[in-house]
Amino acid sequence: MRKVFIAGNWKMHKNRVEAASLAGELISAFSGEKKKIMIAPPFTALATVAEVLKGSKILLGAQNMGPEEKGAHTGEISPQMLTELGVSVVILGHSERRHVYGEGDELINRKVLLALKHNLEIILCVGETLDEREKDIAAQVVENQVVEGLKGVSEKAMKQVTIAYEPVWAIGTGRTATAGDADTIHTLIRGLLIRLYSKKAGEEAVIQYGGSVKPDNTAELMNMENIDGLLVGGASLTADTFIKIVKYE
Ligand code: PGA
Fold first, then answer.
1. Is the CB of 210 under 6 A from ligand 1?
2. What are phi and psi of 202, to 5 degrees?
3. Atom of ligand 1 at shortest distance to CA of 212?
4. Is 166 marked active-site?
5. pLDDT tens digits along 54-93
6. Whose CA is nearest to atom 9 of ligand 1?
7. 5-65+77-246 maps to which CATH number?
8. Angle, CA 201 vertex, CA 138 and CA 248 arms, to 5°
9. Nearest CA to ligand 1 atom 7
């Protein structure tokens, strides 16, 4: 059985006071919750939120990580800097990193390998642009991102890996992929993981959907066979909406 994994990506929102307050609200709401839950505040609020989360089961996530352990890398954050703060999951290859900041598969793969080496869990984001969907190459684009992103990742390390399928055209736009369309890509990703690794690894892999997830489309998405979790942006910024998403029925 795959464990449901719901993650909130706060992106470039919230100062430390706001972040601590939201984290505090989530702790009390999720105290008896069985699902796996993660929140990823901006780097500047990680230490503050780590303090608030102490003793709770909510995981602390980071939104990105540099590809090196240390050195002359102005503006970058190393895996050790994250683990030192209590971060246990890092989001890599988010579409905003790929398409706004020009990160390619090779760079993302280096980050993946480095994060896994430092025992971080990763959420590897993949997804096609609108142009790619209209050209009918969504499946190839996503497969290629998965293959390139996971190059050199062992089957054993796959236990630390979650894949998030986030069609770029659905992020922050209010347009969600239909549950059926999303599940088609999720099924394809699982099939690919079975081919790349093993039946067991593929069947155990957790694949999240992301892109305009809201309380009112959560259940429909989560009812699909190959959607095991959600990566939530905008709707993770208020306690009310994120709690409703996590507690969907
Ligand atoms: P959104 O963002 O829920 O605001 O569409 C999702 C994401 O970028 O992970």
1. yes
2. -65, -40
3. 5
4. yes
5. 999 999 999 999 999 999 999 999 999 999 999 999 999 9
6. 233
7. 3.20.20.70
8. 70
9. 233
